[in-house]
Design goal:
The protein has 5 helices and 2 strands. The protein has about 130 residues and is mainly alpha-helical. A hairpin with a 4-residue loop joins strand 1 and strand 2. Helix 1 packs antiparallel against helix 5.
Length: about 130
C-alpha cells in the first residue's frame, strides 16, 4: 500500500509542477499589478517615487491622482502584461519600452516580483505537495 502511494506521487510530480506554476504565476501577476498600479510600489515594496512638478501638473490637468506614482495615464501599460507559459511578460513593444523607461527614470526595479510575491510560488508548491501526499 505504501509503495502504491509512492508510485502515485512519483507519477504525479510533473502535473504537480505544472499545476503549481500555473496557479502561482496567476497569483503573482495579480499581486504585482496591485502593488505597482494601485499602491505605487517597487520590487522592494517601497514607493516608486514622486512625479516631477511638470508631470504632476499634466496629471492634474487630466484629473488623475498625483499622491503616488501609479504609472497610469492610460491602462495601456497594465494591459500589455500577460501570462505566457508560466511567465509574466509584456505582450508588446510598448509595454517593454515603457516599463524599462520607468525603471530607468525612477532608478529602481519595479516590474519584478517582490520577496512577498516570490514566496507565493513556494507556498503554492507546498500546498499542492500536501494535497498530493494526503
Amino acid at each position: 500500500m505504501f509503495e502504491d502511494k509512492i508510485n502515485r506521487i512519483i507519477q504525479a510530480i510533473d502535473d504537480l509542477y505544472l499545476i503549481s506554476s500555473t496557479i502561482a504565476i496567476a497569483e503573482i501577476n495579480a499581486e504585482m499589478q496591485t502593488r505597482i498600479f494601485n499602491e505605487g510600489k517597487d520590487k522592494r515594496e517601497n514607493s516608486i517615487g514622486k512625479y516631477s512638478d511638470k508631470h504632476k501638473e499634466f496629471r492634474e490637468s487630466k484629473g488623475l491622482q498625483t499622491s503616488i506614482v501609479d504609472l497610469t495615464i492610460t491602462t495601456d501599460l497594465r494591459q500589455s502584461i500577460e501570462l505566457e507559459q508560466q511567465k509574466i511578460v509584456f505582450k508588446n513593444e510598448y509595454g517593454k519600452k515603457v516599463s524599462k523607461g520607468n525603471e530607468r527614470i525612477f532608478k529602481k526595479r519595479i516590474f519584478a516580483p517582490s520577496e512577498t510575491e516570490s514566496q507565493i510560488w513556494i507556498d503554492v508548491l507546498n500546498e499542492e505537495i500536501k494535497k498530493l501526499i494526503a
